[in-house]
Design brief:
heterodimer, A: 174 residues, alpha/beta, eight-stranded mixed beta sheet, two-stranded antiparallel sheet, 6 helices, 10 strands, 37% helix, globular, B: 312 residues, mainly alpha, 76% helix, 0% strand
């Protein structure tokens, strides 16, 4: 009897699972990219920003840039073609409608917030407390999920109109 | 062919007996002839003689020894002709003969050997089950496993099947995962079956390493697959719903992976999974903890990569 049990167990070890390809890092990056894409779709910019290409800058997150560029570049939203630019630092940044600021670059955000506001840029940050440094939308963690908070005050200063879907889904609006 | 041979031999035997007009007497020594044929490895003839003996000789019909001999003849025929057939009639005949022998064996002369043979037959069915455990034959494996259980009951075979049952359920779980992985859309429900069978294995042994690891794998992968399979243009509401599902699967994976990790703390695959699922759950500190353990254990291995690389 024991011999037959051993046969079954041998089969068992030949059919072990592997971790899902792609993995957690890729999945989290995808969620973040989809959020940013939804911000584009659910925010209204001033008329002056509605001409030409719609530029999305990614500061200090090469992987997010690569993913968004490969997924969304060339798509049109409200007649504007999406283009993506990657920046190493604020000093290399050019005018864009949205700027995503990675956590490791966020320490210089407050210094650049006036310039960004003048450029009518929606700043999306990714670290605690940055709504007080000029960011309009900030990623946070809420119940094991990526979520976001909105500073309507900062949005009004640009001025940007945040759509109702974002306001509804935001973890908090200040 | 074997059936024709069997019938023709049976007719010859009947004709010869009738011609002598001594039906019962002749039949009543055929169990001995059957035994000789069995010992000479002439199993087909042995079968004819033992069937004739039991059918035609009333004394042998109620003789435990005759049924004992019949059991061995049919068991050898089964091993020769139908051992890979999970529905073998020869095996059933052997099994029933040993049972019949036991029921008639008031002096307890043959029960030990009969019971050993009954156990061997059950083990052969178990082997049939093991051989059917693949993505093409799994339905038959489930069916034959049921037959195996019925056989144990019918034969009153006392056997500790826990290890076998756990292995059976875990194998089935793996098969359903394979089917799901082959076509996640068409076979979407297969993953529920996989979870069902892994859980059944853990009902028998909640600390089973493989069961916990596999179920942890399944939930971990579901958590990630939900996100990776999203349409990049999904609206924000759909994103939230999928994140919720993903998060729930991630949380479900944790207790199983942790049990597996407790048993094999240096298993890098488990550390990889734990680092990944905590990362998925946005718990960076815990993810880093397991990732550091993983890195320490793998740093001397050439070409190994950390599970997560979120360098900006």
């Amino acid at each position: 009897m024991t011999r037959f049990i051993q046969i079954a167990i041998i089969i068992l070890f030949s059919s072990q699972l592997a971790w899902s390809q792609g993995g957690a890092a890729e999945a989290n990056l995808k969620i973040k990219s989809m959020f940013v894409y939804n911000f584009v779709k659910n925010v209204d910019w001033p008329t002056s920003s509605k001409e030409g290409d719609f530029k999305i800058g990614i500061l200090a997150d090469k992987k997010l840039y690569q993913l968004m560029n490969s997924t969304y570049a060339g798509k049109e939203i409200n007649g504007q073609k999406l283009v993506f630019e990657f920046y190493d630092s604020f000093s290399t940044m050019s005018k864009c409608q949205i700027l995503y600021v990675a956590p490791n670059a966020s320490k210089d955000l407050s210094k650049n917030s006036s310039k960004l506001r003048a450029n009518k840029t929606l700043v999306v940050s990714d670290s605690g407390g940055l709504l007080y440094d000029g960011s309009v939308i900030n990623f946070i963690i809420n119940n094991n999920k990526l979520a976001f908070e909105i500073s309507k005050t900062n949005a009004d200063l640009v001025p940007l109109t945040i759509g109702p879907a974002l306001l509804k889904m935001a973890a908090s609006v200040i | 062919m074997i059936i024709f041979k069997y019938i023709s031999t049976l007719l010859i035997v009947l004709a010869s007996v009738l011609s002598f007009g001594q039906i019962s007497n002749k039949y009543c020594i055929y169990d001995q002839v059957a035994l000789e044929k069995y010992q000479d490895k002439d199993l087909d003839a042995a079968r004819v003689y033992i069937d004739s003996a039991i059918l035609m000789c009333e004394g042998l019909r109620n003789d435990p020894y005759s049924h004992h001999v019949k059991g061995f003849i049919y068991y050898e025929l089964y091993k020769r002709d139908e051992v890979d057939n999970p529905y073998s009639t020869l095996r059933d005949s052997a099994f029933n003969a040993f049972l019949q022998s036991n029921s008639l064996d008031t002096n307890n002369e043959f029960q030990t050997k009969n019971n050993k043979s009954l156990r061997n037959i059950a083990a052969r069915i178990q082997m049939n089950v093991a051989n059917l455990l693949d993505t093409n034959n799994y339905k038959k494996a489930i069916e034959v496993n049921k037959l195996y259980k019925e056989t144990l009951l019918k034969g009153d075979i006392k056997s500790d099947n826990k290890a076998y049952d756990i292995s059976f359920y875990i194998n089935l779980g793996g098969i359903f995962v394979d089917l799901y992985e082959n076509d996640k859309v068409l076979n979407a429900t297969m993953i529920d079956s996989a979870i069902h069978y892994y859980k059944k294995s853990l009902e028998l042994d909640s600390l089973n390493f493989v069961g916990n690891l596999q179920l942890g794998y399944v939930y971990h992968n579901l958590s990630i697959d939900i996100i990776l399979s999203m349409d990049p243009e999904d609206d924000i509401m759909t994103m939230y719903e999928n994140q919720e599902k993903s998060s729930n699967f991630g949380l479900l994976s944790l207790p199983y992976l942790k049990i597996a990790h407790q048993q094999q703390p240096k298993n890098t695959k488990i550390l990889y999974g734990l680092a990944g699922i905590y990362f998925m759950l946005q718990e960076k500190d815990k993810s880093d903890f397991y990732q550091n353990l993983y890195n320490e254990l793998t740093k001397e291995q050439d070409g190994s990569q950390p599970p997560l690389d979120d360098d900006k």
